[in-house]
Specification:
Elements lengths: L7 E2 L25 E9 L5 E10 L5 E10 L9 H15 L6 E5 L11 H9 L3 E5 L16 E7 L2 E7 L8 E7 L3 H10 L8 H16 L7 E2 L2
Parallel strand pairs: 1-7, 2-5, 5-6
Antiparallel strand pairs: 2-3, 2-10, 3-4, 6-9, 7-8, 8-9
Helix pairs in contact: 1-2
Length: 231
């Protein structure tokens, strides 16, 4: 399926090399992916309980076809730059529970764009062995030029001389998102999939669905109230 988007680097006007900022390259754009998972974690206000949600959306229709939620106590303290220790376990549990199994996973967090080049999306991808992309609302490392204002515009995120991700405009004139590879695909593929999966809003539809499921499950859980979603 052709993608109606303009691919360009805001600085150079060109696409990156096929393997730039990536790990492997197992996703053929547009034809082998049937189900896409979004995963997110919500916490109650006390910070003691969490809900990890996996929402499966069909491609290309973007309809919810499956969901699973893991509820339980938070097992690791929050440490900046170490979200994987806190969230990878619950997320992998939800992904093991969900059906149908995903062909691609989107994680609310970073992948290679991480000080140790192993963010939450890397830990999730390595755990489930399914191509995984990190999508974050704010940067963690690196330097970049602002992408142009058009939908589909992007700029590379560079850190210590390495291209670790991209800042991508999913909606015209709206704040971009930070995309990096978690496992099993190239950065070029990751950018294309994020744009395909974001037809109307800033965040991809699978992540929006997971965000809603996690918060709803936590608010409805017995004895747990005032849930707030992770930022």
């Amino acid at each position: 399926m052709a993608l109606n988007a303009t691919w360009y680097d805001a600085a150079t006007g060109s696409a990156p090399p096929a393997d730039a900022g990536g790990r492997g390259g197992t996703v053929a754009p547009g034809d082998v992916v049937q189900n896409v998972a979004g995963v997110d974690v919500a916490y109650d206000r006390s910070g003691r309980w969490c809900a990890a949600a996996a929402a499966i959306l069909s491609w290309p229709h973007l309809r919810v076809v499956g969901e699973a939620v893991r509820l339980g106590p938070v097992e690791a303290p929050y440490r900046p730059g170490d979200l994987a220790a806190r969230e990878a376990g619950p997320i992998l549990g939800a992904l093991r529970d969900v059906a149908p199994p995903p062909d691609l996973v989107l994680v609310d967090g970073h992948g290679l764009a991480h000080p140790r080049r192993r963010g939450l999306a890397c830990a999730v991808g390595e755990g489930i062995r399914v191509p995984t992309v990190g999508v974050a609302k704010e940067p963690l490392v690196g330097r970049w030029a602002p992408p142009l204002s058009a939908r589909g515009a992007w700029a590379p995120v560079q850190d210590q001389g390495e291209m670790v991700g991209a800042v991508v405009r999913t909606r015209a004139d709206v704040k971009p998102v930070f995309v990096s590879v978690g496992w099993g695909l190239t950065l070029t593929e990751a950018i294309r999939w994020i744009l395909r999966l974001s037809p109307r809003y800033r965040l991809p539809e699978p992540l929006r669905a997971a965000h809603a499921w996690a918060g709803q499950a936590l608010r409805k859980a017995p004895a747990l109230t005032n849930a707030v979603l992770c930022d």
